[in-house]
Specification:
single chain; 98 residues; alpha+beta; 5-stranded antiparallel β-sheet; 2 helices
């Protein structure tokens, strides 16, 4: 069973309140370990729902867009045209304590 690790990468400065809130939300996701692919898929759906809520809350701001692509078994998520990134890494080998 595959596990997935969530990594937040900061990129550009936010330009409005919607982007600021998106960046704060994404930063809170850093370091999450998802135990299986089903929860990874649910994570992506929940993240999109949160972004949709931010867009509704800040209607005067430009909508935050979500772009997703895959390379080398890593799922990349760009939020607000590169304001910040979420990377979802497939854990290849677990470390065990002896």
């Amino acid at each position: 069973m595959s596990k997935y690790y969530i990594k937040f990468d900061n990129s550009n400065n936010a330009k409005n309140k919607a982007e600021e809130e998106t960046k704060e939300y994404a930063a809170c996701l850093d370091g999450i370990l998802l135990p299986n692919e089903q929860l990874k898929d649910k994570f992506l759906i929940d993240m999109q729902a949160r972004i949709d809520k931010i867009n509704q809350e800040y209607k005067r701001c430009r909508d935050v867009k979500v772009s997703i692509w895959i390379s080398d078994e890593t799922q990349h998520v760009s939020l607000a045209d590169g304001i910040c990134y979420i990377r979802i890494y497939k854990v290849k080998k677990e470390m065990t304590a002896n």
